[in-house]
Amino acid sequence: MNFLIRMAIVALLGSSCANSAPVQTPEETPQVEEEPTNAASAFLEEFRAEIEARRTPKLPRLGEDMSTEAVDKRLQEMVDLDQYARNSFNGAMSLGLEPAEEERVFNEIGMTTMSIDEDHTKELQTFVRAHGWITKSAYGDVASHNAWILAQHADMNREFQRYVLDLMGPLVDAGEVNSRNYAYLWDRVAVGTQTPQRFGTQGQCVGPGEWEPAEMEDPAGVDKRRAEVGLEPMEEYKAKFKEMCGV
Asked: Per the record's keyword annotation, is Signal included, yes or no (predicted)?
């Protein structure tokens, strides 16, 4: 797979880079107008059908039913869609497509995922600004975690991400939000606004099988800060991206 495509996928998957972006065709790759193969066509047909079915809410939107169960189930429905879209990159990579076809498929997955993120951000923001952050005690651990996933992927609205970060900060010590989630969002907002991150969670592929964090404040102390929020040492974290960056 083209190395630049791998970098774009790592960004869009959300756990490793602050700036999610659509997968783009590198300038050095010539445009190919050939029809997709049966494998690519079948994959995209299934992907489109599944996305269409999942994007139609089967449950009340956030805020329409304020019961704990309703909020929890709707957040899960949203995250299931979020993860289906992102996991589709893995399915596409397993097809063994030619580079031009692979880029075409990744472009569609990427653009669709960004559209989903935009919809989810609007719905979550409306709820959070009206009712506050989704805490463990009010809605449960799973709901609080799922809300964070959606906020982490709200890259097209940095102001909202910063707003969520400010809400989560005081809740960490109170045990109302996951400290690891807070660390990931802290870094995502920092890197997204071109400032040094604190926990080294955001970065990019810099070569085949190699991932490096974006600029950090006090790099020598990063493992201490990571330990304080329950994250593994930096070298263990970097090793997780070896396959994603292409061995």
From this structure: yes
